[in-house]
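Schema walkthrough. Field components (list of strings):
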Amino acid sequence: MSGEAYELLALLMRYVFVVIGALIVFRAARWMLRDARAYQKEIKTLPDAGLVGEMVDLTTDRAQPLPREGTIGSSRDCDIRVKGPNVLRHHARFEFEEGKGLKIIPSRRGLTVLSGVEIRKPAYALHGTQLTIGNHVLRVRLFAGLNVPLPARYPEPDAILEAAEEAVPWEGMNVDAPYWLPEEQAAQAVPFRRDQGYDGNYDEDGQMTWQHAYSMEELRQAQAEQNWIDSQAEEEEAPPAQRRRRRGRRE
Amino acid sequence: MNENKKSRPHVPGRGTLLAEMVFFFLGFFLLALKDGKWESFVLSVAVPAIIYVGTAGISHLFPSDRLLLSLTNFLCALGVLVLYRLSPSRGMSQAVNYGVGVGCMMLCAMLVRFVRNWKWLTVLIMAGSVGLLALPLLFGRETNGAKNWVSLGSYSFQPSEVVKLALLVSVSYLLSQRKPLIAIGFGGVCLLMLMLQKDLGTALLYFGVVFVLLYAATGSIPLVIGGVLGGAGAAVMGYQMFAHVKRRVAIWLNPWADTEGAGYQIVQSLIAIVNGGAWGVGLGLGNAQVIPEYYNDFIFSVILHEFGVVFGLVVLCMYLFIIIRAVMIARRSRTVFHALLATGCASMLALQTFVIIGGNIKLIPLTGVTLPFISYGGTSMLCSLCVVGLLQGVASLAKAGIQEDRELAMQGGEAP
Amino acid sequence: MKQLRKNINRVALFLCALFVLLAAWGAYSLNTYGNRWFSSSANTFARSRKKDVTAGDILDRSGVVLATTVDGQRVYQGEAAARRATVHVVGDSGYNVNNSAESFFATYLYGFDMSFLERLSFAIRGEQRRGDTVKLTIDSRLETYIASIFPSGKAGAVVVMNYQTGEVLAEQSFPTFDPQYISASVKSDPQKPFYNRAVQGLYTPGSTFKMVTAASVIQHFSDYAARQFQCDGVLQLGNRVITDAGTNLSENKITRHGALSLQRAFQVSCNNAFAQAALQLGDLRLKKTAEDLGFNDNFLFRDLVVENSSYPTLNRTDGEIAWTGAGQSALTASPLHMCMIASAIANKGVMMEPRLLLSATAPNGTQRTGFSTREYRRPLTAAQAEVLKEYMRAVVTGGTGTAANIPGTNVCGKTGSAEIDGQEFTNAWFVGFMDESASPYALSIVVENAGGGGSVAAPMAKKIFTWMLKNGYIQ
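Field assembly_structure (string):
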């Protein structure tokens, strides 16, 4: 190819290159925006994305979503915010660990009490465990379906007192598994199947229920039944039933 | 929405992929018309094919982030194109580096995806990286004032590039475990060893990354002030201690004082950029070979020369999108460690790009840092792609997390 | 996690800001310094491209061809005297003169601004590409005349410009050379003929700087007209002694002016009075006025590369400040810059950006756009400029510059005799203008090592203005 002709071609092509480059940038930008929007939408349909449960402040009865890792304290930037006397700005840290539970890592200075026992080293909380931060009592609630040991039935208040009097607190109690253990022992805890979760509901008397979650087959069957019922209801032109999400909280 | 109407599921980014393939087909075809060599014709088909496999193929193998892959592949292939145009042998070996780099990227992604317990690995990595950094001090050879290369027989590499990855992983892990002092200590040791090797560009990069990670993990304002002061102090100390730093700063302040000697590089770089103008001089028509190190430090000037400033902005946008995407991945990740790791990767790529492009356009003094993905060099290419691999790993974990949430929500079902 | 995500957002903002900084700096520096980089002598790319293009012609303002291309050779036309007079503006084919039209306007001359379609049309017609024809603002006849009256054998510079539009009519440096035949002796000449003293020569402005000091006094003291300065001939400040012209301490000859008003001090160019004025003003106020008038500024004119003038900032003792007020000390300014200061006074306080490029025309006749008159800054108010104008008129009518007086024309000016260490005579300066709305021209003249400004430079100014008035420089 002659020099002059190539030169003209190359001069023309530089515009083509810029146009294609700009096109790629434009499409990539649109792609990124769409992806971000789709992600937001997905997060909305999954209000518990990234959460493992909630913490209920028993003094104020306010529930706060519980992410996989985070901090507890009075500071605005804490994930679980507890305001009150003796609560430090960054009081404790927590991390969810598969098969073990929620690891509570207390700070050096603050008073952190797990189920009536002050902790200085990291310890695991399970569903229903009471966590005392300063003067506040929080209850940890973990979602069903998580890979965590099944907690013991929550002991009655006088049972705690009795237990506290005894040298070996949990002996003789009817427990399925320890509900809090030091790190080393918790590591040996029996792993549970995924569908053997704890659904974390209360019954009419205010007692917590614990039952095995449905197996996947049962779930699909139940879903199909529900769909059938819904379609029947639609046929009857009844207003669509307002579905209550069991875990309908937003981040 | 109209899923029923489409027989095939919509693949995001198909258009982008197609545009990239067309771009490189045209680019290599143009070069082939110029030199008439059969290698160029082969490349004009082969490079788009590699891009297709590298973007669509890998995302079939591994649940990766296609957008990130797509942009990375464009930049890597652009590097191959520009290098092939300037010196065909370097272009060819860069293509090989690119292929090996994609493999390393997959390895890094797997590492992040499947390793659960980082504690001992981090200790190992820290020890290994200190050892690696000591190598050039013992058997290194000096190039361009810095002693940061190690040769193994005929093959030579830069340990500081490999240690970048180690630094990212270990500092993120230490900070996620709330051990900032150990992280600072480790960063300081690495920095000191780099200073001893006089590799100040990389030292600046390490400082920037550790500092950004510290800020992200703790968010404390005194730390920011202290970091800025410490950085300024280290810069002044480096300026006082090393003669070649003084020389570089003097060249930066006025390269026109000695256009044939000390200032030659930067002056030729600026002249090449301004010759290109807005639209460039045209692919294959430039004379960017007059810039020393055109294939390495000044490759961005070469791109501006032949493709023009507008295209340079396009490339800059691509880097920016890679950074934004990395930050998005960081925000989506579930655990502190992975979030910090992705942030570190983002800041590493961004700072490296800033430092070298800023050097090319005389915004900051020139330092011997490579432009990620584009610059010639096996270690640099491998390292950049490994950083992307780490990001891919974090992204796939976040995706898996969402999948798990979806399953959990289904398992929880409706209230009875 | 919440805090971490917030911090990550901030980090992301910081990283994005870095990229914005890159793009902004790139755009800014390319826009501001692009021309300079392009016209640098180190630009091998442009030079290699010039082989394929027939360079365009360079014309003066009246259309006289100064440089053209014949059979691929650059030819500088006209008589030898005209070639020698215009060489520092036009340049030479070997690029010995820095930033001359040949290199600074290469974008036009060598068709680097050609669009793709224009190139295509050349290719279709099978012709060699031609660059644009460039028309400069200079007048080759005026330059030839100035060269003929400049003292032979002396080095120096002359700048003539239109103070209303900023068009430079003459920009000359001496000694000069013939671009058509560059002999070896030119290259080895100790006076460096390649050096363009009009824009690159940094001279001590001497008494011409008193325009700036007087401007500062007028700006900062409302009672400037009533102020009296006492000149005792010698003023001792630390280890510096302020003396006036004609004083020779070793021969015990001392010039004394006695009590003076500011106008009288300006008229007789009394160093002692201006030293006192500078001390009364203080360094900061004087510096402020000087910087308003362009000292210490980075000159980024579109058509000209002018060396930056400097007002000293280090070692400011009282003696130094006093000498600064009288125009000595470490002050430096190019003749073009002094001409611009006179222009600002003449033009009611508005300083115009100097222009050298009148127009560029493509081979097919299209006019390139983008050349226009532009204001540089407004350092003085019209009233202040009026007062200074009166002072400068007084210099010509009854002061040091009477040799420049032309009956019937309001010539204003300021002489200067700058003392340079190691020189036998002083540098002769004259900076002035015609205060006539029909012929708005300012000039500045420097003759190195020649004597007093009033006796050497002022008569030249008179000759130049007379020639201009005779040759149609009346609008």
